[in-house]
Design goal:
Layout: H1 5-13, H2 16-31, H3 34-37, H4 45-61, E1 83-92, E2 97-99, E3 106-111, E4 117-122, E5 130-131, E6 143-149, E7 155-161, H5 172-175, E8 184-189, E9 195-197, E10 208-213, E11 219-227, E12 235-246, E13 249-258, E14 267-272, E15 278-283, E16 295-300, E17 306-308, E18 317-322, E19 328-333, E20 358-363, E21 380-381, E22 398-404, E23 418-424, E24 432-440
Length: about 475
């Protein structure tokens, strides 16, 4: 509607005294309003009036009022979280660790005075320690590292880096066990009497990482680099081979190659799913993902489907291991590192120049639930070694590997909430040790709307600080 300019000019000339009667009657109208007198103003006035009417009806008819809606708690307010109930040093000067299915022995690697790593066995408490590979001429002047148990408990597979000295490279990331350059897979009996080479790096790959057995023990999976001039760390694939014992001699056969994802860059394998149908992988497998970022995935070996388990948004999630019951996924991550803790990654693979990492847990829930019954959960940190304000702070700690207590270990007074954690406690000297964590595993509440919290500032109760 058009307003005549004369009216506009008249309204501009109107002074405050001429407007005061209008303001007066407006104030009077507000004061005598029933809603103002009862304090029911603003948003929600209709809802409050409706409840007031319902209350009057209830007073005369003795009708029960409907309860007020309870607001959803924010994700940061969820009460149930896994926590470290007890922490203690088990084996000093020890590296990557694996726990036998029977629960009576663990295997780990250790750097000797000559600078090379060897494979050791001991009880879960560090007793009855003995070296498996020290007597072998084949592993002398070479790294023997990263042991993994066969489900039978009779064999241990490990990686050997025979050209560690021949490389003549001073960079620690090349000659360290994490480097993986020019590595081969060997297997040795737990008595130390029989040992065999399973692969040769000259046959299609010059780097192998993270061998893992299936639960049935009939397959062995590992990561292999097939091209070195692609991306920052080369192009990698997953090999899955049959592990056979012909006349008591272990060998690999029927090797399958898998290359999931779209990036075709670095990836690694960490374990089989409980049904041996799939693998737990890590890598930057999604198109457009940053090369330094890594996420965890569940990969179906039959359908060749890839299911993401974490979304780190460019940070590095790795070393994913399922708990014996399959409900929890433990993994290492550099999420939520304090300022100043970031480091440049290695030249050949991400683990080669380690960045501070803590141990995280992701509750996967009931695997049998389908559709709307499947809840979504956010990962939560279990250790806070790299947070200065925390009681467990060590400063610059790398959680490099770990092992769950096996399902049958309850007979040995162990629980599924027990973890052996290998941590590098000094990034300058490479000092490392194996710690034992007793963990209270309380299933968390489902993740609600909102971003995940910046976990977490408080110290777990009952957990002494590392010495």
């Amino acid at each position: 509607m058009l307003i005549p300019r004369t009216l506009i000019r008249r309204s501009r000339r109107r002074t405050l005294p001429q407007l005061s009667p209008l303001l007066y009657w407006l104030v009077v109208a507000i004061l005598v309003s029933p809603s103002f007198a009862s304090g029911q103003t603003g948003v929600g006035q209709g809802e409050t009036a409706e409840r007031a009417a319902a209350a009057e009806r209830a007073a005369s008819r003795d009708v029960e009022l409907p309860p007020l809606p309870v607001p959803k708690p924010r994700l940061g307010e969820l009460p149930l979280r896994p926590r470290v109930a007890e922490e203690r040093l088990i084996i000093p000067d020890a590296g990557r660790v694996a726990w036998s299915v029977q629960g009576d022995f663990i295997a780990f690697d250790r750097r000797g005075e000559d600078g090379y790593y060897d494979i050791y066995l001991s009880t879960p408490e560090g007793g009855q320690e003995r070296c498996l590979t020290c007597p072998l001429l084949e592993t002398r002047n070479a790294h023997a590292m990263d042991p993994r148990w066969h489900p039978s408990g009779r064999w241990v597979v490990f990686r050997v880096q025979p050209r560690a000295r021949a490389l003549k490279m001073g960079a620690a990331e090349i000659t360290s066990p994490a480097g993986g350059l020019h590595t081969e897979l060997w297997v040795i009996s737990t008595e130390g009497r029989s040992f065999y080479r399973l692969t040769q790096t000259g046959h299609g790959s010059n780097s192998l990482l993270h061998p893992v057995f299936s639960h049935e023990g009939d397959r062995l999976a590992f990561a292999a680099r097939v091209a070195s001039r692609r991306g920052k760390w080369g192009e990698w694939v997953i090999r899955v081979a049959r592990f056979q014992l012909g006349r008591g001699v272990p060998r690999l056969s029927k090797v399958e190659t898998h290359q999931p994802g779209q990036n075709k860059l670095f990836l690694s394998v960490h374990g089989f799913t409980p049904d041996d149908r799939g693998l737990i992988l890590s890598g930057n497998l999604d198109a457009g993902a940053p090369e330094a970022g890594r996420d965890l995935y569940r990969y179906d070996l039959v359908q060749r489907n890839l299911e993401p388990l974490t979304r780190s948004r460019g940070e590095a999630d790795a070393e994913g291991l399922l708990s014996p019951d399959g409900r929890w996924l433990a993994f290492t991550s550099n999420r939520n590192l304090p300022p100043g803790q970031r480091r440049a990654l290695g030249r050949f693979i991400p683990e080669a120049r380690p960045e501070p990492r803590d141990l995280w847990l992701l509750y996967l829930g009931d695997e049998d639930a389908e559709g709307s019954e499947r809840a979504t959960f956010e990962p939560v940190p279990l250790t806070l070694f790299n947070h200065p304000a925390h009681v467990h702070s060590k400063g610059g700690v790398v959680v490099d590997s770990f092992a769950w207590a096996p399902a049958g270990a309850e007979e040995s007074e162990l629980s599924q909430g027990t973890l052996l954690v290998h941590a590098v406690t000094d990034l300058q000297t490479g000092d490392e040790a194996i710690w034992r964590l007793e963990v209270d595993l309380a299933p968390p509440s489902p993740a609600l709307d909102g971003p995940p919290p910046a976990w977490h500032s408080g110290a777990p109760t009952g957990a002494p600080a590392p010495k």
